[in-house]
Each structure stands twice: as C-alpha cells, then as structure tokens.
Specification:
About 15% of the residues lie in helices and about 60% in strands. It starts with a helix and ends with a strand. It is elongated and about 80 Å long. The chain is mainly beta and about 170 residues long. Strands 1, 2, 3, 4, 5, 6, 7, 8, 9 and 10 form a 10-stranded mixed β-sheet that branches. It has a single domain, classed as Immunoglobulin-like, CATH 2.60.40.
Length: about 170
C-alpha cells in the first residue's frame, strides 16, 4: 500500500509541475501599432495575420517564435492613435527582430472601397528587447503608410519602426 501512495504522490507532483512551470518560463508581450503619417485616404484597413519575434540565441526557423497568429485589423489612416493589436507570450530571453505579416489591405478613398496591392506582405523590424519573468514587454510599432495610385490600381508601401516601452504601473 505504501508504494501506491508514493506513486500517487509522484504523479500529483508531476501534474502540478506541468501546470505551474510553463507560465513561469514565459513572459507577456504587448504589441501596439500607430500610424505616424497621413495616408491621404478616408481609411486604410490593414489585416495583420501574424506577429513573431526572433531570439538572439537560436538559428534557423526555430529562432522565430509566434507572439500571435490571430488576425487583427488596424486603420492606418488614423494618425498618432496607438492601438493594441496583440497580447501574447514568448519564452524568456533576448530577442532581436519583430516580424509582421500582413494578409490584406483595403483603402477607402473619397468614399470608395478599393483593394490595395501590398509592395510586401512580410516586414522584419529590427528591435532589441528582453522578455523577463513577471513583467510584460510592450513593443510599439510605428508605421508610415504610403498609398500610390498606379495604372494597376492602388499600391500600399509600409515602413515600420519599433520601440520598447515600459509598461504602465
């Protein structure tokens, strides 16, 4: 009977460890986005499909860790309005790049909706940040949208810059 109690206690400790440990090796990451220039349109809706970050101590595809792959729509015509697009987690450690994948863009110019061609759909943004234990890392993405009318339609060029902000107390 004693052996069964030891096995039961061991299993209980293992289950408790598996429930408690994973959150302790991850840190929260908030990503905000704001447009820092006028897009010369009523609205420029951009769908962000994924945001990931590259660890400094890993190489290859495993270095990229997903912060979020939930779609989020942002209106880039609203200048200097910061909007939280993602709250996710990353494993603790040092990171060097944030990558934004844009899946769709639509512009509304003079009340008319137009599908927009993106010059690029993947944007690596250099930024050094540390994900630490017990605190959220806040990454602010500043985007400059440029709409250009071409013979093929409307083209959107996006330029990103990033900063790490201290979370509010």
């Amino acid at each position: 009977m004693r052996a069964k109690q030891v096995v039961a206690a061991s299993v209980l400790i293992l289950v408790a460890f598996l429930i408690v440990f994973p959150p302790l090796v991850n840190g929260g990451v908030k990503v905000t986005i704001s447009s820092i220039a006028s897009a010369h349109a009523d609205h420029v809706y951009v769908t962000i499909g994924e945001i990931s970050a590259r660890r400094t101590d890993l190489t290859g595809p495993s270095a990229w860790q997903t912060i979020s792959n939930k779609s989020s729509v942002v209106d880039l015509a609203v200048e200097n309005a910061s909007e939280m697009v993602v709250f996710g987690t990353l494993t603790l450690g040092q990171y060097e790049t944030v990558r934004v994948k844009v899946t769709n863009a639509t512009a509304i110019v003079n009340g008319t909706s137009q599908k927009v061609q993106l010059e690029s759909s993947v944007f690596p943004i250099p930024i050094s940040f540390l994900v630490g234990l017990g605190r959220d890392t806040v990454i602010g993405l500043k985007v400059t949208p440029e709409l250009q009318q071409t013979t093929d339609g409307v083209q959107l060029k996006l330029s990103f810059a990033a900063t790490v902000a201290s979370p509010p107390s």
